[in-house]
Amino acid sequence: MTTAATAPSDRSAAPAWSSDELMTVNAARALAAARTCFVGIGLPSTAANLARRTANPDLVLIYESGAIGAKPTRLPLSIGDGELADTADAVVSVPEMFNYWLQGGRIDVGFLGAAQLDRFGNINTTIVDRGPDRPEGRLPGAGGAPEIAANCGEVLIVLRHSPRNMVAALDFRTSVGHGDGVGDRARLGLRGRGPVAVITDLGVLRPSATTSELELTELHPGVTVNQVREATGWPLAVAPEVGVTEPPTADELTALRALKAA
After folding, report:
1. Cα separation of 64 and 93, whole Å?
2. Is there a contact between 105 and 112 (Cβ–Cβ < 8 Å)?
3. Span 14-257: which CATH code?
4. Is pLDDT at 251 greater than 60 in this prediction?
5. pLDDT tens, position by position, 125-142
6. In whole angstroms, what is the distance from residue 144 CA to residue 221 CA?
7. Which of 21, 64, 213, 218 is catalytic?
8. In the chain, where are the structural domains located?
9. Is the overall model pTM greater than 0.90, yes or no?
10. pLDDT one-digit tens code per residue, 194-203
11. In what helix (H) or strand (E) does residue 122 lie, and over which residues does it extend?
């Protein structure tokens, strides 16, 4: 990783990757040391499946429907996609998945997406306020995300970075990240460490050790601190030293594009 001060200054050439590809590759890299990952559908599933093809071939992918060690040849359409069961090492009942594996603290990393995220890594996937005289916008809902956020050893979150998604206050708190700040997870009796990184298409945010508030720790190539601040719905804290993520390798891009084309 380079630092922001030493990042290349010539950004006139168009990159060989999209911002979504950059985000997904960095999200996959975040799973390099994980043993087991409870995978959410959407962006987390793409990143987790890419990780198994690149950064961590031994990664055990676990899905809410009961598939343990799933090895899909294409991106699953949902947690009920038959490919997950067909390629899994084992398939257990949903009650066993939650009561024994998840609530028992047997899963290292939970990987989640979000419609809205606040400064403490709390997630909304339930409803959004669409303004005066308009009905609430209904989202997919909680699913297993609250249990994943509560019980996995740690949580990774991936989402696109905009003021609409990174908000000062959630319209609804579906899944607890760091609650209202330091010590809130312990007060609530939550097992896991909570969110340890938020990977977006602009950079990476991590919770401060002293406040638990998310702060910018890494930028993606070509992105500035001001760009990230402008895309964040709260006054964004910035780490004393901000790194720059490494560009995707040719192998990572090839694997990602093949996965999405399958």
Report:
1. 9
2. no
3. 3.40.1080.10
4. yes
5. 999 998 888 888 999 889
6. 34
7. 64
8. 14-257
9. yes
10. 999 999 999 9
11. none
